[in-house]
Design goal:
heterodimer, A: Ubiquitin-like (UB roll), Porin, 8% helix, B: 221 residues, Glutaredoxin, Glutathione S-transferase Yfyf (Class Pi), Chain A, domain 2, 2 domains, Mito_Protein_Transport_Metaxin (chain B), Glutathione-S-Trfase_C_sf (chain B), Metaxin_GST (chain B)
Chain lengths: 469, 221
């Protein structure tokens, strides 16, 4: 009988054996019938054996959990579909470089006439992979060393280590990740890190050394993460001319906080989605597990996308957040929110909206920001189907506000305060998609509603990043 | 600071009068501040009092990180931040207040020499006592004794080191001696050495009375 060899099918069609309309990114399937042709499609089959070739250090129990469904298939198409899903799950574990699926009829003494054998041929990732890069940036060079140990103990645990040694700053991060066998979305990770940052808009330098432990789990369609984090923060002035308000924040402090985040994401892609919505809600409580700083912080991010005629997409987004210090001490500049920049309200300089002192932006305890976008393919569609597909033209309207609140005044006063002196901007530009992670934008912006103290960047503005308003 | 920067700062500073809200920052009294830092802060406070320049003392836990040089005390005057006695004396001079203008060159050199003596001997003794507490304390006490003897001889029966008017040397000596006399330490020998010289005791008492109590500041803790 024929063999069916399935490779790199993504995604499988949801309706039956019609391989015609495959959707955007699917590749081909080859079916080679041999000698006797039979209509296999709707014939009842039983999956008798599932074989694995190429397992080394991977333990059996996590494999068994991922492929359990294959045995439940009733006909050939279901076998192919379930095998494909099992293959996806195995790749998601992050322990195999390659997974091939082979479906054949059963041979041997106990073979049923309609019995099938499914074989997964896997290649495990090497025990240790490393990378070494040098980076050169603004007056600074650094060496970056990365190490990854996938599938450390056989159950898809992963340890990653990154170390960056630079002329100005040194930073590192060590992380241990462990998923629950059979339930990859439930996972646990512990991180240890030191990061340094320089923020010229506030004349501030910050060094964070921290440890965090987090646990993620799904509830229906949402993904939740519960995290504890302890950070030793060191703040300092970036230059002799820093304002006194920033100088007063210099020194060491310890933050110990518990946080919870919820994410619902139904978009088809995180960069330039065509449809779907995203909702992220995050809350953080600091001070009740130790540390010097005590606050409760809430922030959310909402994005809606709708495809329109002629391949264009209409997108609306809304961000907001609030920081309420608990006790007598005022909030720290490292915890406050910032607004403005090519990834936030366009047309303003990076984080240069809101309360400031002598040209240093101090951030605010409450903010909101919104954007309306229309993305269209490039006019005349140059390079259709190829390079040109990575670009979009985009028309936008952004607005937002950032301020400090006096929490004794009550919610009506807060709403009024956040509604006065709204900064907004509009413009158009080109967006370039970089893989599935980042995007570049080049926009012409016209800022409006500028308040005294804000720094604007009207005209052409360039932005690169992962998260855009 | 480089010469050019100093000249620039002096020019800027000279144009503005001393504001009402000048502030001096030091660490928290009692649980945080060290012997040597306390002496330095007291010296600056005494100096500013002698110049008749009002200043408010604010205690903050992160004072040494706020300071541009990492050392306390520092003063925040208008838009300027200046730390340590030496630069503060310069800064105040640029604004037109000086205690040592009446001295001639020889006396100024002498004053500088005595200030170096105090910094080398008394400051070192304070640092030693707050960080170590061992057997070689004998040598340290010898140095302190010699320093006090030199100071006592120079002071003689005069009210201040350069007769009638106080100078920055008086402020510095006051800061260190007062701190040594009044701070509770595990080892009393340091303050005993200072107490041997009655004119130094009288000197401290006089400055405390005149510049701190009489001005309504109350007793220094």
């Amino acid at each position: 009988m024929g063999t069916v060899h399935a490779r790199s099918l993504e995604p499988l069609p949801s309706t039956g054996p019609d391989f015609g309309g495959l959707g955007e990114e699917a590749e081909f399937v080859e079916v080679e019938p041999e000698a006797k042709q039979e209509i296999l499609e709707n014939k009842d089959v039983v999956v008798q054996h599932v074989h694995f070739d190429g397992l080394g250090r991977t333990k059996d129990d996590i494999i068994i959990c991922e492929i359990g469904d294959v045995f439940k298939a009733k006909n050939l198409i279901e076998v192919m579909r379930k095998s494909h899903e099992a293959r996806e799950k195995l790749l998601r574990l992050g322990i195999f470089r390659q997974v091939d699926v082979l479906i054949d009829t059963c041979q041997g003494d106990d073979a049923l006439p309609n019995g099938l054998d499914v074989t997964f041929e896997v290649t495990e990732l090497r025990r240790l992979t490393g990378s070494y890069n040098t980076m050169v940036g603004n007056n600074e060079g650094s060496m970056v060393l990365g190490l990854k140990l996938p599938n450390l103990l056989g159950r898809a645990e992963k340890v990653t280590f990154q170390f960056s040694y630079g002329t100005k700053e040194t930073s590192y991060g060590l992380s241990f990740f462990k998923p629950r066998p059979g339930n990859f979305e439930r996972n646990f990770s512990v991180n240890l890190y030191k990061v340094t940052g320089q923020f010229p808009w506030s004349s501030l330098r910050e060094t964070d050394r921290g440890v965090s432990a987090e646990y993620s789990f799904p509830i229906w369609k949402t993904s939740h993460t519960v995290k504890w984090e302890g950070v030793w923060r060191e703040l300092g002035c970036l230059s002799r001319t820093a304002s006194f308000a920033v100088r007063k924040e210099s020194g060491h402090s310890l933050k110990s906080s518990l946080s919870h985040a919820m994410v619902i994401d139904s978009r088809n892609s995180s960069i330039l989605p065509r449809r779907g919505a995203l909702l992220k809600v995050n809350q953080e409580l600091a001070g009740y597990t130790g540390g010097d700083v005590s606050f409760i912080k809430e922030d959310f991010e909402l994005q809606l996308n709708k495809p329109l005629i002629l391949d264009s997409v209409f997108s609306a987004s809304l961000w907001g957040g609030m920081l309420v210090p608990i006790g007598e001490k005022p909030s720290s500049i490292a915890d406050r929110f910032y607004l403005g920049g090519p990834t936030s309200v366009r047309g303003f300089s990076m984080h240069s909206i809101g309360p400031q002192s002598e040209g240093d932006y101090l951030g605010g305890e409450a903010y909101w920001a919104g954007g309306l976008h229309l993305y269209t393919p490039l006019p005349f569609r140059p390079g259709q189907g190829g390079f040109g597909e990575l670009f979009r033209t985009h028309f936008f309207l952004n607005a937002g506000n950032l301020c400090n609140l006096n929490y004794g005044e009550g919610p009506k006063a807060h709403i009024r305060k956040l509604a006065e002196y709204i900064r907004w901007s509009y413009g158009a530009g080109i967006v370039l998609r970089l893989g599935n992670i980042a995007r570049l934008e080049l926009n012409y912006c016209i800022p409006m509603g500028v308040q005294g103290g804000d720094r604007i960047c009207d005209g052409v503005q360039f932005g690169a990043g992962i998260r855009f308003l | 600071m480089s010469l050019v920067a100093e000249a620039f700062v002096s020019q800027i500073a000279a144009t503005e009068p001393w504001p009402e809200n000048a502030t001096l920052y030091q660490q928290l009294k009692g649980e945080q501040i060290l012997l040597s830092d306390n002496a330095a802060s007291l010296a600056v406070q005494a100096f500013l009092q002698m110049c008749n320049l009002p200043v408010k003392v604010v205690c903050r836990a992160n004072a040494e990180y706020m300071s541009p040089s990492g050392k306390v005390p520092f003063i925040h005057v208008g838009n300027q931040v200046v730390s340590e006695l030496g630069p503060i004396v310069q800064f105040v001079k640029a604004k037109g207040h000086s205690l040592s203008d009446g001295l001639d060159e020889v006396q100024k050199a002498e004053m500088k020499a005595y200030m170096e003596l105090v910094n080398n001997m008394l400051l070192t003794a304070e640092l030693y006592l707050q960080w170590c507490d061992e057997a070689t304390v004998g040598e340290v006490l010898e140095d302190v004794d010699q320093c006090c003897q030199a100071l006592s001889q120079r002071l003689g029966t005069q009210p201040y080191f350069f007769n009638k008017q106080p100078t920055e040397l008086d402020a510095l000596v006051f800061g260190h001696l007062y701190t040594i006399l009044t701070t509770q330490l595990t080892n009393d020998e340091l303050s005993e050495k200072v107490k041997n010289y009655s004119n130094l005791l009288a000197f401290c008492r006089r400055i405390e009375q005149h510049y701190f109590e009489d001005r309504g500041k109350g007793r220094l803790s």
